[in-house]
Request: fold
Amino acid sequence: MSKLKKEPETWDEVISDFFRIKFESEEEKYLKDELKVVGELYKKVDYLDDAAIEFLFDTKRNKKSNEQSAISFQRKRAVQVLRLSNQLEGLVIDQKKEEYRKKILALREKYTPCKWLSVNSDKAGSVSFATHVIKLTHSKIDTPSLFDCIDKHDDAYLTTSTLTTKTIDGAVSGNQFAPIFQFLELEFKGVKEPVNLSV
Reply:
């Protein structure tokens, strides 16, 4: 049975969770990519004739359990590779460990809240809030999105102004700015802060 996710009790927890998720997501991608490279090396020297090694690198059969997070699964796979008795010639385990250590240090620095906010505050101008997001329709469009705040309406027509609650979405000028939007959209007990989206 999977554990129920504990609801955050403070804004600090909400924000800490955001940075933890971003950190773990990048670490998971790094481990996945590294394990793929190592798996290809094992495949080249026919070590995949060993059923345990073959299973370890088979991403179709070797999947995480429902109770396991994606990052814990990739960490477990990495430890299993380090413990293989059939180590590849040319695969310098100590070098791989050092590369991983450096990656973790870089990610810790990148996702230190103060550092991340300093770097990304300059890019916040690439994020806007809108009722009609153009980019979602076609990524090549450079037209700005629209925030419809017109109050007049005619009951004969269905328009944004006839809606009792407007859905406000984020418009980013490139996918690299999506984490900034995600940060600005953080919510705690139904309240979004520090951005007040009421018009």
In short: The radius of gyration is 23 Å. The CA atoms of residues 2 and 67 lie 5 Å apart. Residues 194-199 have pLDDT under 50 and may be disordered.
